[in-house]
């Protein structure tokens, strides 16, 4: 494997000194880029793109050709594990992901197997290997998975939802069944992420997109404890380097201290939480990633730079900050505005590292 030419991102996650704040963007390979839309059309559909290692590699590298980003993130989807469990993932235009066979009873949960990452999810590992080779040490590669709770919401609801009625009905009326599902998913995610690390991922991230819809008690019981279990089971060193682990719960600002206590290296923070407040809450025990509102990228470049300045000032001096959006970049954003965002971080952040 090639020597890493830019390890700012990995150093920041481990709270080691950096000369500036590293930056990448959630969904940086995506629909806001015309070159991505071309490849997506060529592939035929989203999952066909995910399952073609060469094309997944191509779209992973596209944003790095345009922008001075400090990390690449595997192009994939959080629903690969449920798909590999046989639930029949498909995408409806304008409606997002759906499952042909949602989980609605205990028997269906009992029958779920743990996917073998080098068998049912081999296409993901092939993509990781291909991307890592083509990156040639330019920047680190981030692998990822959805959290058990977030995966369970899609699997039980059968797709996207606004009120989470089916998954919460299962959680409150059949808690033992819910825990069985979450245990299987925690095992699957641990195996899946370790396989990504073995294939070449140099950092991993767990996206708990829907943890924020739970009460504090239910978050601890049905989301956090399973992420903690995964963190404990992950490979933390590869290629002679530490492999940092980042947890991200959207709308999870209230639980940052408990998340920091899981043994992870970093926490993602969305834009509903002031970054300085978040830093005080976790007491510099972990690095923080975030946290600009993605909608700011609709604003003129001067306004984008102003927001970057506010967030850098909020985090303050010292290391342990990875600049990012508080969630994924919106499809309608002008790539030139993304460039203005990245340039502003490059321009303004060195002052905080002297």
From TrEMBL:
<keyword id="KW-0627">Porphyrin biosynthesis</keyword>
<feature type="domain" description="Uroporphyrinogen decarboxylase (URO-D)">
    <location>
        <begin position="22"/>
        <end position="31"/>
    </location>
</feature>
<feature type="binding site">
    <location>
        <position position="327"/>
    </location>
    <ligand>
        <name>substrate</name>
    </ligand>
</feature>
<feature type="binding site">
    <location>
        <position position="209"/>
    </location>
    <ligand>
        <name>substrate</name>
    </ligand>
</feature>
<keyword id="KW-0963">Cytoplasm</keyword>
<feature type="domain" description="Uroporphyrinogen decarboxylase (URO-D)">
    <location>
        <begin position="142"/>
        <end position="158"/>
    </location>
</feature>
<comment type="similarity">
    <text>Belongs to the uroporphyrinogen decarboxylase family.</text>
</comment>
<comment type="subunit">
    <text>Homodimer.</text>
</comment>
<dbReference type="GO" id="GO:0005829">
    <property type="term" value="C:cytosol"/>
</dbReference>
<feature type="binding site">
    <location>
        <position position="77"/>
    </location>
    <ligand>
        <name>substrate</name>
    </ligand>
</feature>
<dbReference type="GO" id="GO:0019353">
    <property type="term" value="P:protoporphyrinogen IX biosynthetic process from glutamate"/>
</dbReference>
<dbReference type="GO" id="GO:0004853">
    <property type="term" value="F:uroporphyrinogen decarboxylase activity"/>
</dbReference>
<feature type="site" description="Transition state stabilizer">
    <location>
        <position position="77"/>
    </location>
</feature>
<dbReference type="InterPro" id="IPR006361">
    <property type="entry name" value="Uroporphyrinogen_deCO2ase_HemE"/>
</dbReference>
<keyword id="KW-0456">Lyase</keyword>
<keyword id="KW-0210">Decarboxylase</keyword>
<comment type="pathway">
    <text>Porphyrin-containing compound metabolism; protoporphyrin-IX biosynthesis; coproporphyrinogen-III from 5-aminolevulinate: step 4/4.</text>
</comment>
<protein>
    <recommendedName>
        <fullName>Uroporphyrinogen decarboxylase</fullName>
        <ecNumber>4.1.1.37</ecNumber>
    </recommendedName>
</protein>
<comment type="function">
    <text>Catalyzes the decarboxylation of four acetate groups of uroporphyrinogen-III to yield coproporphyrinogen-III.</text>
</comment>
<feature type="binding site">
    <location>
        <position position="154"/>
    </location>
    <ligand>
        <name>substrate</name>
    </ligand>
</feature>
<dbReference type="InterPro" id="IPR000257">
    <property type="entry name" value="Uroporphyrinogen_deCOase"/>
</dbReference>
<dbReference type="InterPro" id="IPR038071">
    <property type="entry name" value="UROD/MetE-like_sf"/>
</dbReference>
<dbReference type="Pfam" id="PF01208">
    <property type="entry name" value="URO-D"/>
</dbReference>
<feature type="binding site">
    <location>
        <begin position="27"/>
        <end position="31"/>
    </location>
    <ligand>
        <name>substrate</name>
    </ligand>
</feature>
């Amino acid at each position: 494997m090639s020597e890493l030419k830019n390890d700012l991102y990995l150093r920041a996650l481990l709270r080691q000194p950096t000369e500036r704040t590293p930056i990448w963007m959630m969904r940086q390979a995506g629909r806001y880029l015309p070159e991505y839309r071309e490849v997506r059309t060529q592939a035929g559909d989203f999952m066909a793109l995910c399952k073609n290692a060469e094309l997944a590699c191509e779209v992973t590298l596209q944003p790095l050709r345009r922008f001075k980003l400090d990390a690449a993130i595997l192009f994939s989807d959080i629903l690969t594990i449920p798909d590999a469990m046989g639930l029949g993932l498909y995408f409806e235009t304008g409606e997002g992901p759906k499952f042909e066979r949602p989980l609605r009873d205990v028997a269906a949960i009992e029958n779920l197997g743990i996917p073998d990452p080098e068998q049912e999810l081999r296409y993901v590992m092939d993509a990781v290997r291909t991307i890592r080779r083509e990156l040639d040490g330019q920047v680190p590669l981030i692998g990822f998975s959805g959290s058990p709770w977030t995966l369970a919401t899609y699997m039980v609801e059968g797709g996207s939802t606004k009120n989470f009625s089916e998954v919460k009905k299962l959680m409150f009326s059949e808690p033992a069944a819910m825990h069985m599902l979450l245990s299987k998913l925690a095992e699957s995610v641990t195996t899946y992420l370790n396989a990504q690390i073995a294939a070449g991922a140099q950092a991993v991230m767990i996206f708990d997109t829907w943890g924020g819809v739970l009460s504090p008690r239910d978050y601890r019981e049905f989301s956090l404890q399973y992420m903690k279990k995964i963190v404990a089971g992950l490979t933390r060193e590869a290629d002679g380097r530490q492999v940092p682990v980042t947890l991200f719960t959207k709308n999870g600002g209230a639980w940052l201290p408990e998340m920091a206590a899981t043994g992870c290296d970093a926490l993602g923070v969305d834009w509903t939480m002031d970054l300085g407040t978040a830093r005080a809450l976790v007491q510099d025990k972990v690095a923080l990633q975030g946290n600009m509102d993605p909608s700011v990228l609709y604003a003129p470049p001067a306004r984008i730079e102003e927001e970057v300045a506010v967030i850098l000032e909020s985090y303050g001096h010292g290391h342990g900050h990875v600049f990012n959006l508080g969630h994924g970049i919106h499809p309608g954003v002008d790539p030139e505005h993304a460039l203005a965002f990245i340039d502003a971080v490059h321009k303004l952040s060195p002052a905080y590292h002297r």
